[in-house]
Amino acid sequence: MNAHQESESDEVEALVVDMCRQHDNAPAALLEILHDIQDAVGHVPQSSLAAIADALNLSRAEVHGVVSFYHDFRAAPAGTVTVKVCRAEACQSMGALTLIEDLCRRHGVTLGETSADKGLTIEPIYCLGNCALSPAALVNGKPVGRADVERVDGAIREARS
Amino acid sequence: MSAPLTIYVPRDSAALSVGADATAAAIGREAAARGIDIKIIRNGSRGMFWLEPLVEVARDGVRHAFGPVAAADVGALFDAGFPGAGNGHPLSLGPTEELDYLANQERLTFARVGVIDPLDLAEYEALGGLEGLRRAAAMKGAEIVEAVTASGLRGRGGAGFPTGIKWKTVGEQPEGRKYVCCNADEGDSGTFADRMLMEGDPFMLLEGMAIAGFAVGAQEGYVYIRSEYPHAIATMREAVRLWEDAGLLGDDAAGSGRPFRIFIRRGAGAYICGEESSMLESLEGRRGTVRSKPPIPAIAGLHGRPTVVNNVLSLATVPVILAKGADFYKDYGQGKSLGTQPFQLAGNIKRGGLVEKAFGVSLRTLVEDFGGGTATGRPFRAAQLGGPLGAYVGIGHLDVPMTYEALAEADAMLGHGGVVLFDETVDMAGMARFAFEFCQIESCGKCTPCRIGAVRGKETVEKILRGEDVARNIALVEDLCDVMTDGSLCAMGGLTPMPVLSAIRLFPEDFDKGRVAAAAE
Ligand SMILES: Cc1cc2nc3c(=O)[nH]c(=O)nc-3n(C[C@H](O)[C@H](O)[C@H](O)COP(=O)(O)O)c2cc1C
Ligand code: SF4
Ligand code: FES
């Protein structure tokens, strides 16, 4: 570990300790804590697991087990813009699978992965509760209904600006 | 000077997904530029999503609808006299309540959704809110349970278990720490009623939870909301804060002399956490692994304590029952399917949205009269009822009345009330493959038939799709489905066979395309 990485992980640790305290160090709040960390840092760094385990009086294996169970938590940062496209049944009925293929091809990324320039991540999601305006997507948290390549690209441009 | 005209532009996330924020901003700008005095209220959605952004103007106590209004349409609308008139404009739809889609519904649970500002407590109360809670606060717990039982209300989360009976069990447990947990994980494709209610009338859910708390002697409530619903989470958090400030939650909740508090929790992208015991594990900060039963949550639920677990719609319907009486509610519906069901029309449908109707309405009425057929205009071929674990049905099922009993008889289920339409281009073998794939992605991993069966099932359907040994592989899938049905701990593995087998049964030709294609080569 170089000096830069070390100070970064110290920072993360301080943040984690603080976030756990805000939830009274309650083990039941683990998901909330992980969300808070991911909201602040963009992912759940490996280096945070020990600090969480310490604060909540859990084993590291337990914390790791929870992080790995839930699809939301990512171990590495996502791209600057994250596009989540629904591929559940209602969206499939309106061409979601083709939309996903087209989006990935156009941006040169594989579904579930981040582009080389770290600018974009396209991920599958299973229902956004917008099934009457299928296909549905979320672009950096902003909902896009009746999604097509143009509408999603527009939302990506907006998220970048 | 006359009072400003009130203009409604929904804040529902589906409306936002087609530009409601931009529309609201454009209306604000245009009115200011023309010196017209208006007040914009961000309401929930009326649930007519093909008309979103649906803008309404209140004139002389009547709301007039315009839709779909894109930001770019706003200038022309004002030119035609909007908001003062504008009735001649092509986007003018007439009085909102007179639109067939709404006029033909029986909205009890959704009575205020899309009507009010979701976070305006005074308006909530003016339209009947808090009546149920005030009644309940003066009643004994057992009396509340009795009213809910008498109403015939059954769980709207999927299993349809009588709500009153569940509450009775929790109420009869010795006094002490008890919980009310609201299941707002709404993971089923084709469903959005919970989301709409939380975004459009969040106080009603809080009211239902508080009534449940009084009924069973619980002191705390949790709402477990899926992380895919950031807007619902934000609205519910704000709603709780407003209720705390108003003294409706706290040590003396709603002047009942009893404590009740509510906490909002986020899920983290796991479909299985909608299964109640998995949700409880998740609420305790653990992996969402399904618990073996017994014990049932009513006896040992959250932190091992007696717990009511109910769906958003079940809880949100309780205030109506308390306010208007069990008899009023059970006058709707038929047989053992009493009251109303918020159906959700989704997928390839022209007029997708929320239709609350008494149980017993036919699928045809929903799909044709309300839905207007497919969005693409191609012939309807299949519908999936009740989410990803529900059966596919075809044209032959259109006259089935939507009740728990009639659907079970037709080898289908109501689930959470989702109806997902597909046109003739759907590949039903592909949908069967997806059912297994979804189970593979979302299985909690506890039992082998589900964990391994899903993977094997997907691979086998892929062989069928390639035309390999079709008859033998279909038989293999059917055997596998038997094993999953019999050997799974919960309905994830136990009901994945439902979409798969219904697809094979109703659309056998789709499972033979690969073989036909291979033979032609
Ligand atoms: C895999 C699976 C997913 C489920 N998802 C949900 C859900 O998202 N929301 C829900 O209310 N119930 C869901 N259920 C049903 C719950 O286990 C439970 O029956 C329900 O929350 C009880 O509330 P109710 O009686 O008010 O319906 C699911 C069940 C299974 C097996
Ligand atoms: S059936 Fe599947 S999801 Fe349900 S308990 Fe078993 S492994 Fe878990
Ligand atoms: S299925 Fe895609 S939003 Fe519901």
From TrEMBL, chain A:
<keyword id="KW-0408">Iron</keyword>
<dbReference type="InterPro" id="IPR036249">
    <property type="entry name" value="Thioredoxin-like_sf"/>
</dbReference>
<dbReference type="GO" id="GO:0016491">
    <property type="term" value="F:oxidoreductase activity"/>
</dbReference>
<dbReference type="InterPro" id="IPR041921">
    <property type="entry name" value="NuoE_N"/>
</dbReference>
<feature type="binding site">
    <location>
        <position position="91"/>
    </location>
    <ligand>
        <name>[2Fe-2S] cluster</name>
    </ligand>
</feature>
<feature type="binding site">
    <location>
        <position position="127"/>
    </location>
    <ligand>
        <name>[2Fe-2S] cluster</name>
    </ligand>
</feature>
<dbReference type="InterPro" id="IPR002023">
    <property type="entry name" value="NuoE-like"/>
</dbReference>
<keyword id="KW-0479">Metal-binding</keyword>
<dbReference type="InterPro" id="IPR028431">
    <property type="entry name" value="NADP_DH_HndA-like"/>
</dbReference>
<comment type="similarity">
    <text>Belongs to the complex I 24 kDa subunit family.</text>
</comment>
<feature type="binding site">
    <location>
        <position position="131"/>
    </location>
    <ligand>
        <name>[2Fe-2S] cluster</name>
    </ligand>
</feature>
<dbReference type="GO" id="GO:0046872">
    <property type="term" value="F:metal ion binding"/>
</dbReference>
<feature type="binding site">
    <location>
        <position position="86"/>
    </location>
    <ligand>
        <name>[2Fe-2S] cluster</name>
    </ligand>
</feature>
<keyword id="KW-0001">2Fe-2S</keyword>
<dbReference type="Pfam" id="PF01257">
    <property type="entry name" value="2Fe-2S_thioredx"/>
</dbReference>
<protein>
    <submittedName>
        <fullName>NAD(P)H-dependent oxidoreductase subunit E</fullName>
    </submittedName>
</protein>
<dbReference type="GO" id="GO:0051537">
    <property type="term" value="F:2 iron, 2 sulfur cluster binding"/>
</dbReference>
<keyword id="KW-0411">Iron-sulfur</keyword>
Automatic annotation (TrEMBL), chain B:
<keyword id="KW-0479">Metal-binding</keyword>
<dbReference type="InterPro" id="IPR037207">
    <property type="entry name" value="Nuop51_4Fe4S-bd_sf"/>
</dbReference>
<comment type="similarity">
    <text>Belongs to the complex I 51 kDa subunit family.</text>
</comment>
<dbReference type="Pfam" id="PF10589">
    <property type="entry name" value="NADH_4Fe-4S"/>
</dbReference>
<protein>
    <submittedName>
        <fullName>Formate dehydrogenase</fullName>
    </submittedName>
</protein>
<keyword id="KW-0411">Iron-sulfur</keyword>
<dbReference type="InterPro" id="IPR019575">
    <property type="entry name" value="Nuop51_4Fe4S-bd"/>
</dbReference>
<dbReference type="GO" id="GO:0010181">
    <property type="term" value="F:FMN binding"/>
</dbReference>
<dbReference type="InterPro" id="IPR037225">
    <property type="entry name" value="Nuo51_FMN-bd_sf"/>
</dbReference>
<feature type="domain" description="NADH-ubiquinone oxidoreductase 51kDa subunit iron-sulphur binding">
    <location>
        <begin position="429"/>
        <end position="474"/>
    </location>
</feature>
<dbReference type="InterPro" id="IPR011538">
    <property type="entry name" value="Nuo51_FMN-bd"/>
</dbReference>
<keyword id="KW-0408">Iron</keyword>
<dbReference type="InterPro" id="IPR001949">
    <property type="entry name" value="NADH-UbQ_OxRdtase_51kDa_CS"/>
</dbReference>
<dbReference type="Pfam" id="PF01512">
    <property type="entry name" value="Complex1_51K"/>
</dbReference>
<dbReference type="GO" id="GO:0051539">
    <property type="term" value="F:4 iron, 4 sulfur cluster binding"/>
</dbReference>
<dbReference type="GO" id="GO:0008137">
    <property type="term" value="F:NADH dehydrogenase (ubiquinone) activity"/>
</dbReference>
<keyword id="KW-0004">4Fe-4S</keyword>
<dbReference type="GO" id="GO:0046872">
    <property type="term" value="F:metal ion binding"/>
</dbReference>
